[in-house]
Design goal:
293 residues; Serine Threonine Protein Phosphatase 5, Tetratricopeptide repeat; 0% strand
Length: 293
């Protein structure tokens, strides 16, 4: 069994599968099905994995580990209620094992039951406070539930475990923004640029943050960078329009607004209702651009 686990950990899945088949009569049947289901899911052979789950569920008894792998399989094929059901079976047998709590919590996230997911991930962390999957699961469920400030320490901790997880950085930046921790938010976006390369939306958000900090020069630099990366991205043009309007740079503001509505006509109504554009609203070109003429 150790050799099979070794091969799986080395991602030598075909070799592990062959060894499972070869020694099927010499290894525990729960181990056989649990590892085979895991291998099939990893190989994206989901139909075969489900067949093996159905076979395995006829066994008596069924181990906690096998129930958990079945739960994970059902999660991967988006049968979330089934995943929750079998994760609960695993938890009944080994309540101190954090893995089935993670499968259950992730499934609850997928069906938008964020408060229940938070409770489940907290249970997992009671048994292992540094279990990476439970930390990230709690962080994400708190964020999705709108508990942004509470999510921050868990998002930071989760990112320590998953240094390349761009989604966690995005959630962390959003949470800092809601908490009005603008410097931390800026740092998160800068880390995101280092981790995932240059994205126009990141520079656009950075520009908006510098506006909140009243550093309008840096704001404009970031909006321009976003535009240089994607000339058909309307948002940075619109943010530039707002700044230029506030600075009473009428001609440049109207030219920017023209570009905005050419790219995305939905901005016409937004501009019409935006008080930061009051300095240019009385010009005929503005009324023409938003469709009042």
């Amino acid at each position: 069994m150790k050799k099979i686990i070794f091969l799986i950990n080395k991602n030598k899945l075909d070799a592990a599968s062959k060894m499972l088949t070869k020694y099927i009569d010499d290894i525990p049947i729960n181990f056989y099905y649990g590892q085979l289901i895991y291998i099939l899911v990893e190989q994206n052979k989901n139909d075969q994995a489900i067949e093996k789950c159905e076979e395995a569920l006829k066994l008596n008894p069924i181990s906690s580990e096998l129930y958990n792998n079945i739960a994970w399989c059902y999660f991967e094929v988006q049968r979330y209620n089934d995943a929750i059901f079998y994760a609960d079976k695993a938890i009944e047998l080994t309540p101190a094992d954090p893995y089935p709590y993670v499968n259950k919590g992730n499934s609850l996230i997928e069906i938008y039951k964020y408060k229940e997911a938070i409770a489940v991930f907290n249970q997992a962390l009671e048994y292992n406070e540094n279990f990476p999957y439970a930390v990230s699961g709690l962080a994400i469920s708190l964020y999705l539930n709108g508990d942004y400030v509470e999510a921050i320490p868990y998002l930071k901790k989760a990112f320590e475990f998953e240094k390349t997880n761009v989604g966690l950085l995005k959630y962390l930046a959003d949470s800092y923004f809601v908490a009005k921790q603008y410097d931390n938010c800026i740092k998160s976006y800068e880390d995101l640029l280092k981790t995932d390369g240059e994205h126009p939306w990141v520079y656009c958000n950075l520009g908006d943050l510098y506006c909140y900090k009243c550093d309008f020069n840096k704001a404009m630099i970031n909006f321009d960078k976003a535009i240089s990366l994607d000339p058909n991205f309307a948002a940075p043009y619109y943010y530039k329009t707002r700044l230029l309007s506030l600075f009473r740079e009428k001609d440049e503001a109207l030219n920017c607004l023209q570009k905005v509505v050419e790219i995305d006509p939905d901005y016409k109504q937004i501009a019409l209702n935006d008080p930061t554009l009051n300095n240019i609203k009385f010009y005929s070109k503005f009324r023409e651009l938003v469709g009042l003429l």
